[in-house]
Amino acid sequence: MKAKQSLGSRLAEGVSGGLMRVFLIVIGLFWLVPTIGLLLSSLRSPENIAASGWWKVFTEPSQITFDSYRKLLENDDITSSLLNTVWITVPATLLVVIIGSLAGYAFAWMEFPGRDWWFLGVVGLLVVPVQVSLIPIAELFGNIGIFGSVLGVVLFHVGFGLPFAVFLLRNFFAEIPRELLEAARLDGAGELRLFFRVVMPLGGPAIAALGIFQFLWVWNDLLVALIFSDSGSQPITVALQTQVRQFGNNIDVLAPGAFISMVIPLAVFFAFQRQFVSGVMAGAVK
Questions:
Q1: Residue 285 φ/ψ, nearest 5 degrees
Q2: 222 CB contacts (<8 Å, ≥6 apart)?
Q3: pTM for the full predicted model
Q4: For residue 143, what pLDDT is reported?
């Protein structure tokens, strides 16, 4: 005889089935509404934008035009700032991933004096707010001549990205079975070979998750770029903010620029979505 289920069990089974999937789909579509609205606005003329909302496109598809993107490509400030964003984001991401991986392996499996105290110092840096260091580091960069340059913005992001990177990867690398590393050492593998041949492949999901976090953080940054960049090194976030301040009605440039600024990190996230989920869930189930 089948045991009678409680009301809570029946409700749990109900929400975990098709009803929950429909609910999650609706929530996902709801969160996509601003992105869809920005895309459709970027495909309309300034006159149509001023006259009606972006949803008017569904009843009048003839409003769609690519003139705004053509004007965007003719705007030197926007195109150069988009290139600056790439020059800032890619090195800042790669340096954090490479240095963080090496340091995380060292803290996890290499013996050296004061290792635990040094790691505690790295963990302590996680609680340092970015705002308290803006003025001191700005003065330091000014003294050494890199304030207002792409290099200065990259170094700032690397410095503040490394504590989290080292903390994340050290904890992940520490979960690798010791027997596996000892077997590789018995086969004659040195530390570098052990790192690149054993640790890096096993730590791929965590490294990919870290890379995505760092890429999104740097790409979407405004505060640091607003302070440490000048007119020749400003990224897309600062360029769009400047356009709003100088030309408040320049919507034909702002809409496509904002959409491009948003769609690139979205494309990166969806391209590495599987690795990101694996990295976030790493360690949850053993």
A1: -130, 125
A2: 237, 238, 241
A3: 0.79
A4: 92
